[in-house]
Design brief:
Layout (H helix, E strand, L loop, with lengths): L1 H7 L1 H6 L10 H12 L4 E4 L7 H14 L6 E5 L4 H12 L4 E3 L5 H5 L5 E5 H4 L3 H5 L5 E4 L10 H9 L6 E5 L8 H11 L9 H11 L4 E2 L3 H8 L6 E8 L3 H18 L7 H13 L3 H12 L13 H8 L15 H12 L5 H16 L5 H15 L4 E5 L2 H19 L8 E4 L5 H13 L3 E5 H4 L9 E4 L6 H8 L11 E8 L2 H14 L3 E2 L9 E7 L17 H10 L6 H18 L5 H8 L9 H8 L7 H8 L8 E6 L4 E11 L4 E10 L2 E4 H11 L4 E4 L8 H23 L12 E14 L1 H9 L2 H7 L11 H9 L5 H20 L3 E4 L8 E4 L4 E8 L11 H9 L4 E7 L6 E6 L7 E6 L2 E5 L17
Parallel strand pairs: 1-6, 1-7, 2-4, 2-5, 3-4, 5-6, 8-13, 9-11, 9-12, 10-11, 12-13, 16-21, 24-25
Antiparallel strand pairs: 8-15, 14-15, 16-20, 17-18, 17-21, 18-19, 22-23, 23-24, 25-26, 26-27, 27-28
Helix pairs in contact: 3-4, 3-27, 4-5, 12-27, 13-14, 13-18, 14-15, 14-17, 14-25, 15-18, 19-20, 24-26
Length: 937
């Protein structure tokens, strides 16, 4: 029962992993509860960044494993997350997974006898056939939004998940990226019965019915409503950096050159795209700008007129204002995609335009080692490292990342006296191998104080060991701010967090700050504590960062258009368009992926929410005084046993209680869930409260007797239907019953209530009787305590210790012999007393049968027989004819119990009622005693 309570109560199941660093949260209980109750598990965990999606998926995997439903599971992840998942599988599932790192390993690693296999999606998509040959019981896909419609990733997942009986879990903080068709395609991977063509009205039905069934989405706000303040404050800071004369000249000339480059061009021409790329790179770092300019002006002239058709495709994929990461599958970083664009389109530049860009390049080279942005960033880094905090610097570009790694340590040493050796700085970018990523993440967790990372490398990583994020360049899409901050502002973050975004005091950067950031965000001029850096720092609270009251314009805008407007000097009119774009995007996401409100989650979990175990009671139940009983609990979960109704009689307990199992069966008759419920005097308990109450009652002396009755408390079924079935299961059935769907995905369920335990209190007098007499015998003979003569303690002591029979014992043996001989005579046997010459007492025989009977007699009710070693040997040698008759309660109403083959596995026990034998199912305990007597006479 303990196993079933822990295994099938999501709160207690999660709690049993608290020694693994898992803190139980209510939204995680909801996810696990749904997975417990429905088959197959087809679920998208679409929580905001930082709410523990990985842990939720692995707890579901562990639950299915304990239930014996998983032999082989595949975990598909972005390459950068392979090592993080390896460590989480080892920590939570307590098993070493098989990690497939390259194509040469596919065949032989998939054949290894492991339960969990991890592979990157970009490797898996190239070996679809080999992977599909395996029989998978569970597939987990992390960052599933990266599998967009029309990509190889999507086609691979479509093949992998098309078996409707397969358990599938998708994870994504951004499942909907502004495109309804793409989002529906992802839902169709979970539920292939959603039709390919669907009207907008039917789309909305799918979205509403999939909330809380196919898709679970919770936010930090919802978690705080459920738990109190889980997420500490996250502060946003906009930092303005003064620039040198050389830096200002560089940016002024760059702006003039870019304006000249686009002034006679269409908005979506190759030259305009090149100008936007140069502007985007220059807003990051001088290094990125100079590398881009050098690549453009120093390469041989190659005409690229015929390749102009790709412009809008590149813009769509790289500059869209949405939740998407880089979608060009063949590139590791955005740098690679930009280099490809430059190589394709630099041939459109005239010699005059190239010459102007060369002048800009020369100005950039004059800046030299003086980098005002990097100097201020060193101030921020030094302040927080001295404060004992770890810092992450995010940049869009790998070129900038390498530049920061090369220059920042020298500035920190020179300006602040902070020495950061190679092991004190970690780096992450998309071009790294798995072992390099693992090494760098471990370095950052264990000893490094600073991490420099690109966005591609950071996706999905748990980096809450840090509490400070620095945006090296101001993202044109505010959504990127949320995604970066989400790496540190997440569950288990113990500090308040801070996010800095750096702006240069140049015309272009101040234009972005004043006309975009300050208008769309609730930020105000900062006062008070913090590093003394730059000039006015603008601050905001990340929880209320976006200005909901900002004035909108009747248009949408992309990142590309914003950068282009910045080059044209027209950014002032774009704040309203950006607000509208973000709002429409948010509305699209919330319309298609509505958040599960806190009140709904509470209602679903109401029956299990008061279940946090008392560790001392838990230790008592597992009967081990250990510092941490949870490993013992998880060991117990592996021991599966069926339900056997039993009855327990408790001495001195004033009452009665019953424990019922609510058992859920699918349409194939397979049990998928069972939940114990205790009924006592009109009250109902579940979970740990049930265990605690049973433990309290059974702290008194008790005896387990024959099976429980089949009576059912029908209020239990009402409780189950109202609080489990109708709240959760019914929603899945309603979703599946949508007439627009082309079939059903979830199994139909039926619920049965079975009694597992019946506990009754009895008086001390009655309890003393059942200690001596099996209730089965009492029931067969219709005896009550008034008809039973119990042995006194003195009698028991004498019987146990004295070798010389007392007169009373001899007298009871003689009376028992008379009773047995009369009984056998009445049944037509010839009887002979052979007690003085054989190793048994009575020979009973007829023409066709012979019995050897050992007789034991007791004046009180005492069902006990003691044999000498010789008698025992005789009984074994002649077991087919051997019987023991125990005649007890001679003082009041003799009770005869007959045991055939008493020392054999197939022994049988009978009670004599009105001269007839009634077979009863009674356990017999056999003990061997050695005695030595030394007597001086």
């Amino acid at each position: 029962m303990f196993r079933d309570v822990i295994l099938h109560n999501p709160h207690l199941f999660v709690y049993s992993y608290s020694d693994k660093g898992i803190i139980p949260f209510k939204h995680q209980f909801q996810t696990l509860y749904h997975a417990m109750l429905m088959r197959p598990v087809r679920l998208m965990i679409a929580d905001e960044i930082g709410l523990g999606k990985t842990i939720q998926a692995l707890l579901i995997a562990k639950y299915l494993d304990f239930r014996g439903e998983i032999e082989k599971a595949l975990i598909v992840v972005p390459k950068v997350l392979r090592e993080q998942w390896r460590e989480e599988v080892k920590r939570i599932l307590e098993e070493a997974p098989e990690v497939i790192e390259n194509g040469s390993e596919i065949e032989w690693k998939l054949k290894r006898p492991r339960k969990y296999f991890i592979i990157s999606i970009d490797l898996a998509k190239r070996y679809t056939e080999e992977i599909l040959r395996q029989k998978w019981d569970l597939v987990i896909v992390d960052e599933v939004h990266n599998a967009t419609l029309g990509t190889q990733r999507y086609e691979f997942l479509k093949e992998l998940t098309k078996n409707k009986d397969l358990n599938v879990i998708f994870l994504s903080a951004t499942p909907h990226r502004g495109n309804n068709r793409d989002y529906l395609a992802r839902l169709r991977l979970l539920d292939p019965t959603i039709p390919e063509e669907i009207s907008p009205m039917h789309e909305r039905k799918i979205y509403m019915k999939s909330r809380g069934t196919l898709v679970l989405r919770r936010t930090k706000k919802v978690v705080n409503e459920l738990e109190g303040e889980v997420f500490k404050k996250c502060h946003f800071g906009a930092v303005v950096v003064e620039v040198s004369r050389e830096e200002r000249e560089f940016f002024e000339e760059l702006n003039r050159a870019l304006f000249e480059l686009i002034k006679d061009q269409a908005d979506y021409s190759p030259l305009t795209l090149l100008a936007v790329i140069i502007r985007k790179r220059a807003s990051s770092s001088y290094e990125a700008a100079l590398k881009t300019l050098t690549r453009i002006v120093e390469s041989a002239y190659i005409s690229g007129q015929e390749r102009a058709r790709g412009v809008e495709s590149y813009i769509e994929k790289i500059f869209r204002m949405g939740y998407e990461e880089l979608e060009i599958e063949e590139f590791n970083e955005i740098d690679d995609a930009i280099h490809k664009i430059i190589d394709e389109y630099r041939g459109f530049l005239t010699e005059e335009q190239l010459e102007r860009l060369r002048r800009v390049l020369e100005l950039g080279k004059k800046i030299g080692s003086k980098d005002s942005k990097l100097e201020v960033i060193s101030d921020i880094v030094a302040y927080h490292i001295r404060n004992g905090e770890k810092v992450i610097i995010f940049t869009e570009f790998r070129d900038t990342l390498e530049y920061v790694l090369e220059r920042l340590p020298d500035i920190l040493r020179r300006k602040h006296g902070i020495v950061l050796e190679k092991d004190d700085i970690a780096k992450l970018h998309g071009g790294m191998k798995s072992e390099e990523i693992e090494r760098e993440i471990n370095k950052f967790h264990e000893r490094a104080n600073l991490l420099v990372s690109t966005d591609v490398a950071s996706e999905g990583l748990n980096l809450h060991v840090a509490s400070v994020v620095i945006n090296y360049e101001a993202p044109w899409s505010p959504i990127k701010l949320e995604q970066r901050v989400g790496r540190i502002w997440r569950l288990n973050q113990t500090r308040e967090t801070k996010a800095y975004t750096i702006f240069l005091a140049t015309e272009t950067d101040l234009d972005v700050l004043n006309n975009l950031y300050r208008k769309i965000m609730n930020i105000k001029e900062a006062v008070g504590s913090g590093p003394i850096i730059g000039r006015p720092i603008f601050e905001g609270d990340f929880e209320n960062l976006w200005n909901e009251g900002a004035e909108e314009e009747n248009r949408e805008v992309s990142e590309y258009e914003l950068i282009l407007a910045s080059i044209k000097g027209e950014l002032k009119g774009y704040a309203g368009a950006l607000v509208r774009t973000l709002r429409i995007l948010k509305q699209k996401v919330e319309g298609a992926v509505p958040v599960n409100p806190a009140g709904s989650i509470r209602r679903e979990l109401e029956i299990i929410l008061e279940d946090t175990p008392d560790v001392e009671v838990l230790k008592k139940i597992v009967n081990r005084n250990v510092p941490n009983p949870f490993r013992l609990v998880r060991g117990l979960l592996r021991e599966a046993e069926g339900i056997e109704g039993i009855r327990v009689l408790v001495k001195g307990y004033d009452g009665s209680m019953d424990v019922y199992y609510a058992i859920f069966y699918d349409e194939d008759g397979r049990e998928i869930y069972r939940y114990p419920i205790l009924a006592e005097n009109g009250k109902y308990l579940v979970g740990f409260n049930l265990l605690k109450r049973i433990s309290e009652v059974l702290s008194k002396e008790y005896k387990v007797v024959r099976g429980a009755s089949e009576e059912v408390d029908y209020k239990v079924k009402t409780l189950v239907m109202d609080n489990i079935y109708n709240l959760i299961v019914k929603k899945y059935l309603e979703y599946d019953s949508l007439n627009i769907k082309e079939g059903k995905i979830f199994k139909r369920l039926k619920v049965e209530i079975k009694k597992a335990l019946e506990v009754k209190g009895i008086s001390e007098e009655e309890f003393e009787v059942i200690k001596r007499v099996p209730p089965e015998i009492m029931e067969v003979l219709g005896l009550d305590s008034t008809k039973i003569e119990l042995p006194t303690n003195e009698y028991l002591k004498i019987f146990e210790r004295n070798f010389v029979p007392l007169d009373k014992i001899l007298e009871s043996e003689k009376k028992a012999m008379e009773i047995v001989m009369e009984l056998e005579k009445s049944r037509g046997y010839n009887v002979e007393d052979v007690s003085l010459r054989e190793h048994y007492d009575i020979r009973a025989f007829t023409d066709g049968e012979e019995k050897y009977i050992e007789v034991k007699g007791h004046y009180p009710m005492l069902l006990l027989a003691e044999l000498t070693e010789k008698e025992f040997e005789f009984a074994q040698k002649n077991e087919d004819k051997y019987w023991i008759y125990i005649v007890s309660n001679i003082a009041k109403d003799p009770v005869i119990v007959k045991i055939y083959k008493p020392f054999s596995q197939d022994r049988r026990v009978f009670v004599v009622k009105n001269g007839e034998d009634v077979e009863v199912n009674i356990n017999i305990e056999i003990k061997k005693k050695d005695r030595h007597l030394l007597k001086l006479s």
